[in-house]
Amino acid sequence: MTHTHSASPLKISMLTAVAMLAFAANSLLCRMALIETDLQPASFTVIRLCSGAAMLLLLCSLRAKPVITGGSWRGAAALFLYAAGFSFAYTGMNTGTGALLLFGSVQLTMLSYSYYQQERFNRWQLAGFGLAVAGLVLLLLPSAASPALIPAILMIMAGMAWAAYTLLGKGTNAPLIMTTGNFWRSLPMLILLVWWLPGENWQHLDPTGVVYAIASGALASGAGYAVWYAVLPFLAASVAATIQLSVPVLAMLMGWLFLAESITGQMALAGAATLGGIALVIRYR
C-alpha cells in the first residue's frame, strides 16, 4: 500500500473503518477461540504471533522491503507481554469488557507518561482523566458482568505493555518494518508458552480455534496494522486518537452480535465514562 497525497477522503475513511474493525475483531476472535473451541490461551498466542509475523513479512516483501531487522528486543518483549496477557485475560471476561479494559489502560498509561514527561494538563484534561479512571473502576465493581480479578489484572497489564510498545515505536518513519521486526523478534519468547502447555494440547489443536487464531494474527493484527499505518499519515494526531475510541464500542457490538453477550447498563455507563473522559483529554490537548 503506497502513500499518495492524492488519496481521496472516502478511501481514507473506508480504510480507517477497516482498521478499527480489525482491531475490534482481535477481541472477538480471541473470545470465540476460547469459548467455542478447545484452544488454550497459550496456543492462541503462539499461533497469533507466528501468523502475524508471516503476514507482515509477506506485506513487506510485496513492497520490496523484505526485512526483519526493524524493531527492537524491548519492543518485542512489550508485544509478547501484551499478546500473552490479552489471551489469558479473555478466559475470564466478555468481548466488550476486555476491549474496554485494554483500551482504557493503554490510553491512561500513555496519558500518565505524557504527564510524567512534563506535559501539563488543564482542568478539562484533568477532569477527563479522572472520569476515564472512574469508568474503569465502575467496570470492575462486582456485578454479573464484571470480570474476575486475575483476568482483569492481566488485561490491564496487557494494556500497559501495549502502551509501552506504542511509546517505543513513536516517531519511527517506517512503522510497518518496525512492527515486522518486533513480531519476528517476539517468536523466540513463545518458548515460554510452549513450555507452559502440557504436551497433549499441541497434538490435538482444535482446527476451528486454529483458524480463529490465524485470522487474529494474519488479518486482524498483521493486515490491520498495515492498513492503519497506511492511513495514519493522512490523519491529524488528535483525529487518529479519537477514532480509536470506537474500538471498544465495536468490540461490545461484535460480542453482542456474534456471541450473544449482553451489554449491561453498568458496561454502557463505564464505557461512556472511560471513552468520554479520554475524548475530553484529547479534545483539549
UniProtKB/TrEMBL annotation:
It is found in: Membrane. Coiled coil: none annotated. Residues 151-282 form the EamA domain. Its main location: membrane. Keywords: Membrane, Transmembrane, Transmembrane helix. It is a multi-pass membrane protein. The chain crosses the membrane at residues 12-34, 46-64, 76-93, 99-116, 123-142, 148-168, 175-197, 209-228, 235-257, 263-282. InterPro entries: AA-Vitamin_Transporters, EamA_dom, EmrE-like. This is DMT family transporter. It comes from Salinimonas sediminis.
